[in-house]
Amino acid sequence: GIGALKEKLDYLKMDEEEKRRFDKHVDRTRSNQGTADYFREKGLEEGMRIGQEKGLEKGREEGLEKGREEGLEKGREEGWAEARKHLARSLYENGAAIPLIAASTGLSQEVVGKLVEA
To answer: What is the DSSP string of the chain?
Structure first.
């Protein structure tokens, strides 16, 4: 627009030395801007890389923790199941009836029957 025309007119009014200094200043400014843009981009890339690494690490930690919790829960469940089976066999060996064993252990009468037959 008008501002650009005024700048051109001002430039045309300069003597050769002023034009040379002005051109040098513009070149330096563009170079500095390019350098700033380059380092800004590099900084963003580095920041994203660090963020991704931290995110992956946090994800790994959360995954390991969840895996440990699930493993412990499964281990407890399997332990209780084995304990109930052991109790059922022990009660049967000590003369308890299958319906009483089922009621005491939470196992079905069918499961208790199979356990004591084995």
So the answer is: -HHHHHHHHHHHHS-HHHHHHHHHHHHHHHHHHHHHHHHHHHHHHHHHHHHHHHHHHHHHHHHHHHHHHHHHHHHHHHHHHHHHHHHHHHHHHTT--HHHHHHHHS--HHHHHHHHH-
